[in-house]
Amino acid sequence: MLFSPVAMHIPDGFLSVLLSIGLWIISIAIVAYALRRVGKDLGERQMPLMGLLAAGIFAGQMLNFTVIGGTSGHLMGAAIAMILMGPWAAILIMTSVVSIQALVFQDGGLLVLGANIFNMAIVGVTVAYMAYRTVIMIAGKKKVGVLVAGFIAAWLSIEITALSVAIQLAISNTSPANLAIPAMAGVHALIGIGEGLITVGALAFFLSTRPDLLQLSETPQVGSKMVWLVGLLVALTLVIASPLASTNPDGLEWVATQYGFLGSAQEPLYRILPDYLFPGISNQTLATIVAGILGIVIVFGVSLGVAYTRRNRQTSGG
Amino acid sequence: MHIHFLDPYQGGSSPIHRTDPRVKFVLTLAFILTTALIPVGAWPIYILLITIIISGIILSSVGIIYVMKRAVLAFPFMLAALPLVFTTPGLPLFSLNIGAWEITMTLAGVERFISIALKSWISVQAAILLTATTPFPDLMVAMRAVRIPRLIVAIFGLMWRYLFVLADEALRLIRARVARSGDSGITGFNSGGNFSWRARIAGGMAGNLFVRSLERSDRIYVAMLSRGYDGEMRSMPLPEMKVSNWIALIVGGMILSLLVILSFLVGG
Amino acid sequence: MHHSIEIEGLSFAYPDGQEALQDVSLVIQPGEKVALVGPNGAGKSTLILHLNGILSGNGRVRVCGLEVEKENFGRVRAMVGLVFQSPDDQLFSPRVFDDVAYGPLYQGLPQQTVKERVAESLAAVAMDDYAQRVSHHLSMGEKKRIAIATVLSMKPEVLVLDEPTAGLDPRARRSLINLLHELPLTMLASTHDMLLVKELFPRMVVLDQGQVVADGPTDDLMDDKPLLEAHGLERPY
After folding, report:
1. CB-CB: which of A205, A315, A317 is closest to C94?
2. Rounded to whole angstroms, how far apart are CA atoms B64 and B76?
3. Could you read off the pLDDT of B62-75 as tens digits, one per residue?
4. pTM of the model
5. Measured between CA atoms, how close is B158 to chain C, in angstroms?
6. Higher per-residue pLDDT: A82 or A66
7. Cα(first)–Cα(last) distance of chain B, in Å?
8. Per-residue pLDDT tens for A95-135?
9. Which of A137, A188, A190 is nearest to A161 (CA)?
10. Which of A65, A205, A212 to mutate to test the interface with C (most CBs of C within 10 A)?
11. φ, ψ at B31 (rounded to 5°)
């Protein structure tokens, strides 16, 4: 019985081995650093705190709300974890959640766990951090500011993570870029709204119940500017690269070939539609739009499929 | 009401259950890596891999049905790879006319899609077999053995311990909400509220869970301090690795490497 | 005039095979106050969850004349107010007002009605001034009352309570008993508190291992020492 958001946990077999290992190395390095930082900040309290919050987020992902008809929305939690605990602790917490989901519940693969950690724990948290601090700077630390910042941070954490997943699938030649990227971006733009609203609801709860928990008066930690910058860079890179990749898949493939992700003996990929469809109208744009719609349908199908199999798993008792 | 079914461990005393968890853990990861390395056309090797994993499942007495039911989880994601069938250039198999467009299914595309689907399906079975035959505390031993930092393993352990408690609480929150989600029966008053309200209610429930998690962690911390905790993660030393374990690891590794080499000779 | 609760031959087993209820039958008339007693694991909580469709077993369950089945869940939940054992698991909104307003809000009632309902429910549990308080910070006794208010605001016909006095100190308990005494609703309470049963509930149903082993006037059953002992119960006086 698992209730994490749709289509973010990549299973084994979907990413190239080289990419998987590369992302493992990056994730291990960042998580190792996070461990040292949190150890310094929280000391011995960190273990029960991280463990319980990770369990809380995991359980929190089970809380659903009806979107339309039979579909439900759920929480991912990177933004909330970040707002509650700061970026480094949030990275550790989300790493724990994602790891246990993969290890014990097969929600996400093991070889690709490094990639899933990178996407949901690292990208999700750094982007949320960047967005949150930026909006707070603009909107102020009062209640309204916190809620707006929380919404935007949550929405971005979902959207950018989705883009990250899409690009990894494209680089691995598992999903064509001009389908995967608009599809993931489109569907998760909607899912992100749900995440944003849940985050707002949770923040409202904290503000009235335990406002002390929200580090509103937190002085910027050493190195947090670094996190902010990284978050911004990641977000910008993905946001700029994605439309480029999807409308110019040859470019992406060229990059992939250069870095050895694809065999050099392969022909150009990703040509879904011929070049000469409607005279005068750019077929690239049309193709992307249609591909995006098609892709959205597919991702939606994936979501329903996942939800359906999970519900079946629950009722049959595992 | 307890969420028993969250724990994937299925008790038993099969040879697989009795294998050292460290061996199982490493071999499972190696197996998944092997599967990932197999190139597209090496069908005989895929078949070999499937036979290996199914033999493992049978040997473990966990039940094929149990494993297959859980393996279904990987299927929906395969839709994401489906477009490959049409976009990979190669020998055309079959063309579809959709409106003004013609999309062509190619042999290479079908092969690629099937190979991704197989890799995914085989890997997930291996992971299920591991967790069905290895209780979580043993998995933690395996994690420590492969040098995952003790702090992380300790966090996992605490998370595991309280996962079920908190999942129970989440379930009760949902039940309490359901019990108050009624229909007035008066025409004109539509029940359910709107999407934004429902999402925020779910958020409040999540906030409730988190605050309780935090406060509970305080109580646990006090209990730990009372038993002498000083921040250092101390645990029982890992049991000795028997010679048979090393043999299993080496033989397993050799077989898997052989499979990878064969696969490049056979297909690709 | 319909029965408030009518259960006929209800059996239920959990997905893992554990038999929780076996052929349970029970009829409760409007206005009755009935206590459900039995040892832990008898199936009391399981039975309660069938009353608003959270669980579904074999057999018939009718509430206020309506069959408890999928198409009636909405109406049933508006008519049967279920108050669970742990208030922390039921107060999930930031403020008391929001939690008490959830029921009427969900039903789509107009704003003014919602406000009136909240005021009435809080008054009924003698917590008139608590609307803007934060649920999380209240004492156990206060939380239990608010939990009852969250259900009263739906104006149910039947009130079902799971362990109402558990975890309360003597003063809070006395206060709750007085409150329950005042409420004119049909009531079913699952409880270990035999003194509560003696004081408030003229009729007692004993459940053990998923079966109804006794159903009658509290005064009579309380005198039946062998019966009580056989099912893990004790006379409180």
Report:
1. A205
2. 20
3. 889 989 988 887 78
4. 0.81
5. 22
6. A82
7. 52
8. 999 999 898 888 889 999 999 999 999 999 999 998 998 88
9. A188
10. A205
11. -60, -45
